Amino acid sequence: MAYDPASWQNFYVMTGGAAAALTGLLFVAMSLHAQTIMGSRFYRNRAITTLMSLTSQLLLAGAVLIPGVPVLTVGILVEAAAVFFVAVTIRATRTRGPPPADAWMAWGRQATELVGGTIWLVLFNAAGVSLLVHAGGGFYVLAAVMFVMFAWNIYVAWVLITEISEPA
To answer: In this structure, are residues 3 and 139 in contact, taking their beta carbons and an 8 Å threshold?
Structure first.
């Protein structure tokens, strides 16, 4: 089952639907604060990376659900997405600018973001490699990535919305 996409159909129908719903909800929530988000590189980076991550979950779930798709193809797509997010994370970290004065990040939040983001990226890359080489858990690892991605995206979205909603 670890390398049989057909065995995972229900799981990816669920994760694709959840990713689509969360992406839509987040887009609406962010549109209510679009001026604040677009006025800050820090908030803008937070918003776009969260939307891109949720969208990637939707696209990866769709890729797994394509009938007859080879596991190698899924592995290539997963690894390409994982490497893309490593690059996006490095770029966002280097160019995000300081948090706005009214949204100063506590050391605990910074540590959580560093640890959480690292765990997500390591698992994501491990899932791609596992699917490529048919060793190490395959779709089980990708399922763990999907759960971590949901938790991580919900956390980051919550932080973004609370930061921009705090009174100055």
So the answer is: yes
Q: How far apart are the first and last CA of the chain?
A: 52
- Per residue in 105-147, pLDDT (tens digit) is 556 666 777 788 888 899 999 999 999 999 989 999 999 999 9
Distance separating alpha carbons of residues 126 and 156, to the nearest angstrom: 22
- The closest of 23, 28, 5, 13 to 78, measured between CA atoms, is 5
d(CA 33, CA 162): 11
Nearest Cα to 168, choosing from 122, 101, 99? 101
Separation CA 106–CA 119 (nearest Å):
20
How much is the mean pLDDT over the chain? 85
Check residue 167 and give left, alpha or beta (phi > 0: left; psi -120 to 50: alpha): beta
Name the pTM for this structure: 0.83
Residue 15 · residue 61 · CB < 8 Å = yes
What is the mean pLDDT of the segment spanning 8-19? 93
Inter-residue contact 160 to 43 (CB < 8 Å) = yes
| Maximum distance among all Cα pairs of the chain, rounded to whole angstroms | 54
